[in-house]
């Protein structure tokens, strides 16, 4: 299976800060776990923290924890990472509660479909799914809602009750 980390565990790999960037090459499970560990330690280079990286981290957190705990931990990880890398969490930038929760719920639903057993293949399947489209949340929200300070600060339920089919 995959390693489980508690709040105090630091995972060591031969290649921390590995060269793998989500969405660009086929990953190994060690590279995926190293990527997540680098985010958790707030040492991931900013240029590697892209949309695909958010999806991969969401998937790994959901494979480790039930949805409410994954959300709690991811909220803390992203907010802390932003501060540590000089990207403040404000009303117009940084952590976005509605997008984080929406994507986690979508990834959690996607995980209940038939998926490859190999982690690298699961990641590739996720990154090839409709969830990887940066405009995917617009199926559930109006742009002005997503861009609002309220949506960034706290959860806003989808305006359009459409579940994205991530197959």
Task: Describe what is shown at a glance.
This protein has 167 residues and is mostly helical. The protein has helices at 29-40, 51-64, 67-84, 97-110, 119-127, 143-146, 149-153.
Describe what you observe in this structure.
The protein has about 170 residues and is mostly helical. It is about 45% helix and about 0% strand. It has seven helices and no strands. Helix 1 crosses helix 2 and helix 3 packs across helix 4.
Give descriptors for this structure.
single chain; mainly alpha; 46% helix; globular
Q: SSE order in H/E notation?
A: HHHHHHH
The strand count comes to 0
Main sheet attributes: strand count, strand direction, barrel closure = none
Low-confidence stretches: 1-16
Report mean pLDDT, rounded to a whole number: 86
* SS-derived structural category: mainly alpha
| Intertermini distance | 23 Å
- Residue share in helix: 40-55%
Beta-strand percentage range: under 5%
The total of helices stands at 7
CA gyration radius, whole angstroms: 15 Å
What would the principal axes of the Cα set say about the shape? globular
């Amino acid at each position: 299976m995959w390693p489980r980390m508690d709040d105090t565990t630091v995972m060591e790999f031969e290649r921390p800060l590995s060269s793998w960037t989500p969405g660009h090459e086929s990953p190994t499970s060690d590279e995926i776990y190293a990527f997540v560990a680098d985010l958790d330690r707030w040492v991931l280079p900013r240029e590697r923290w892209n949309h695909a990286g958010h999806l991969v981290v969401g998937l790994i957190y959901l494979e480790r924890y039930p949805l409410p705990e994954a959300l709690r931990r991811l909220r803390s990880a992203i907010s802390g990472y932003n501060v540590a890398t000089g990207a403040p969490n404000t009303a117009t930038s940084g952590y976005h509660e509605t997008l984080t929760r929406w994507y986690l719920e979508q990834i959690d639903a996607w995980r209940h479909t038939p998926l490859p057993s190999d982690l690298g293949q699961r990641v590739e399947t996720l990154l090839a799914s409709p969830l990887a489209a940066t405009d995917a949340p617009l199926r559930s929200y109006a742009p002005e809602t997503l861009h609002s300070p309220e949506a960034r600060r706290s959860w806003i339920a989808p305006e359009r009750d459409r579940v994205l089919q991530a197959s």
